[in-house]
Amino acid sequence: MTQFVRNAWYVAAWSTEIDEELRRFTLLNEHVVMFRKSDGSIAALEDRCPHRLLPLSKGKRIGDTVQCGYHGLTFDGTTGMCTRVPGQTNLPKSAYVLSYPIEERHGIVWIWMGDPDKADRTKVFDMPEFTAPGWKVHHGDALHLQSNYLNVAENLVDPAHISFVHPTTLGSSASENVPVHVQTEGEAIVAWRWIRDAEPVGFFKGFGGFTGNVDRWHYYYLYTPSTAVIDFGSAPVEMQIGEDERDRGVRIFALHFVTPVTKDYTIDRWMHIRNSALDDPTAEETMDRMFRIAFAEDKEILEAVQKEEERPAKRRPIRIAIDKGPLVYRKRINELLELERTEDLASHPSPAFVYHD
């Protein structure tokens, strides 16, 4: 059975997906009911009444509380505590639903599904380009995949697949044998490569308007548990840009917020931030159209892999040089899961023990 890292921030929805109505979302195999309270903030509660287990999303709002549609038990939208049991005055201590911490910024709704006391809001993913001048932010779609989230996330730290899965959109045969660099020491796992003096790929022919050869790059950043940033772009060969001069070219950040729904169902909400065509009203539509083509290619591959993983295995799969990033990612996930399975009682050791390391 797939285990999920719970003490982490996940994207629950775009801000536009949540209004005053009770709406059910499923994350980490748990159902959550969310709605906007009267002050505009978002309530996120366990979507199951503790009495007869009817989903609260099938009840109704009464102000900033939710009334169960079966017997009328009412729960506070902030704390999840029961505020009314029709027919009796006492409120049992066990009459509550879980309430999940929420952080909303940049049109993105983040949720913490683990221990609420560990929900550090400074750890919510952010980047300067969200608000920096000279950049345009655009929300894309929610890609639904019948695939385990680990496979989806691994695909987002894998520049090598671009040449073969996206030969007419994001890649080409020119990059097939170009070495991939991998760095695994920092907060994010990073994989990158440059393709110098090559024909522009389909994406930049359609969006960047390049006609001659370009220098192009792909930098893949994967943050545990499942947020990915792909920094890619192109610049005319004549500019001879260095690796730290990517802002001089047409540069795009494609952001992927991968949310595990169940063991074999994942939602990838994607968006982009760009430094060109800032005032072009057609740019976003053009880019979205090309992204949808590319991500449909990923979807076909990942769902086919999922089906094969569910079949009996005749032998262990092999691993090759390009798998360094995904292997480290799996290791990090396992380490986070192990931390959640155990309780550290040695963080303040007894004076009877003296540590020298």
From TrEMBL:
Keyword Iron: yes
Domain Rieske residues, every copy: 9-111
Keywords: 2Fe-2S, Iron, Iron-sulfur, Metal-binding, Oxidoreductase
Keyword Metal-binding set for record: yes
Record Pfam families: Rieske (PF00355), VanA_C (PF19112)
Alphabetized GO MF terms: 2 iron, 2 sulfur cluster binding; metal ion binding; oxidoreductase activity
Name of this chain's protein: (2Fe-2S)-binding protein
